[in-house]
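Example 5.3 — Tyrosine-type recombinase/integrase
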Amino acid sequence: MLTLEEEQSIWDVLKTDAVSSRDKAIMVLALLTGIRAVDILNLKLGDIDWQGDIIHIFQQKTNKPLVLPLLPAIGNALVRYIMNDRPESDSPYVFLSYNAPHQPLKEHSACYAIVTKIFARAGVRSGNELKGTRLLRHHVASKMLRKGVAVQAISSTLGHVKPDSTDIYLTTDEEKLRDCASTLSIIPMKVRELQ
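Solution (predicted structure tokens):
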């Protein structure tokens, strides 16, 4: 998961012109929703309900529906890209290559490259640490957990089919884990004498 400082550094870069509007939209989607890279790349214009402020997709991995809130930061980033920089195309996909013939971005590596480029500009995770949308998915879940959001709600937000898929994120809440450990240390222990 990202530290508060790392997340702020990323937002600072996203406020500049150093990142294209397409890449900003991809990063904001991943950073605020935890959506999988494959689902970002498969996002279609028709999946965005501007009136209802939601994004409705069928997840590639599970083939299950997922409804995400169209938060203002996400909506604004998408509008800037779609209205100002998205190449003219009949493609139903939101995110297109900038080079003709303006094909939809399809490879997971496209999202990874975008996220790592933004991380580099922000001075975040410049070593061999985990990067990409997987880290951002983990980050979203961890932030929700720290805010006291129920595990079932986190599971639903991330589009997990099995609620126990969210268990991996439970290990990221270090403060709660420390509380558990300190609570255990005050439990009186009775030692039975061996006979």
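Remark. Residues 175-184 have pLDDT under 50 and may be disordered.
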